Amino acid sequence: MDKNIRILIVDDFSTMRRIVKNLLNDLGFFNTVEADDGTSALVELRKGPFDLVITDWNMPGMPGIDLLKAIRADSALSKIPVLMVTAEAKREQIIEAAQAGVNGYVIKPFTAATLNDKLTKVFERLGAAA
Amino acid sequence: MNATAAPAQSREALVACLHAALDALEQDDDGAWRRAVDELVQWRTQPLVQGLVRLARELETTLGTGGGNGSLHEACLRLEHVVKVSEDASHHTLDLIQDCGILLGTLGGDGHDDEATVAAIRSRLSEMTAAQGYQDLTGQIIRRVVELVRAVHEGLGEYAPGTRPLQLDNRGHGPAVAGLDDPAATQDDANQLLSSLGL
Predict the structure, then answer these.
(1) Does A92 map to a domain?
(2) How many CB pairs under 8 A join A and B?
(3) Between chains, do B136 and A87 touch, taking CB under 8 Å as contact?
């Protein structure tokens, strides 16, 4: 697995962005960029290539589910894996995210082990596809 | 409201009331004078009372017993949940710090597997990082309560020009609070659901 893959972390809370970033660092991934909502995430995504998006759902401006749909609807971005990390835990929301093409779903509060597990699975798929 | 803005009929009634009060005062009729003054006071305060009644009714409709995320009672319960989540996260972090202290004390011992100990410390450090996620959850709840307070504030200023009607934003449901919201899916539930959907 290439540890230099570029990862976009999207969350309106700077603490959560830092947590995800630190956990990624623990796994050896240091090439990260941050955005605080879907709109600014799309700006970042269109600026340069990304290999993975980790996004919250509930954010001011564009929420994560709309970001996911926008990514899947854009031919230049549609292949990027998206991991949802969110406190939104209603069954219908998980189904909506799955139908929109999410690659993984982590419910907050999460343990480091859970995030590691989900990231590993996404990275495995990335590795297999490469 | 003031006398000049009152409709002609109200103005006539007001003038009649003032004359009646003056006449009663000139004739030393204390009872009639008091009745006339009471009527004047009522005339003056009625629009304000009506406004407050209307505001109370609208606040009740918007924030009251209708369920959802808006009632003041629920706001208090959500804030209590914030206190509990913060406390739990602090204790969890402190427990992990204590564990690390104990593990560090075992390093370098005879026949001790230092590598495993370092791995255990690293794992606890990661858990400490994840435990700080409480701030995101409590922050979301506090923001919802701020929206509620803002809605009440806007409701109180309803008679000011350009005020919008009471309305709470609803981008998502936010963290589920036990006793207030439907039980949230656990990570295992989510895994099972996604697995059943082929993910």
Answers:
(1) yes
(2) 110
(3) yes
State which residues form the domain around A32: 7-124
How is residue A4 written in tokens? 């230099």
Q: Where are the alpha helices (DSSP H) in A27-111?
A: 38-47, 64-73, 91-100
CB contact under 8 A, B133 and A109: yes
Is A36 a domain residue? yes
The domain spanning residue A53 has which CATH number?
A: 3.40.50.2300
Provide the shortest C-alpha distance from residue A81 to chain B (in Å).
12
Q: How far is CA A79 from CA A11, A68, A72, B104, B152, in A?
A: 21, 11, 7, 45, 45
Instruction: Give a yes or no: residue A14 inside a domain.
Output: yes
Is the per-residue pLDDT at A47 higher than 90? yes
- Chain B nearest-CA distance from A111, in A, is 6
Nearest residue in chain A measured CA to CA from B127: A112
Residues in chain B predicted with pLDDT less than 70, given as ranges, are 1-9, 58-70, 155-171
What's the number of domains chain A is made of? 1
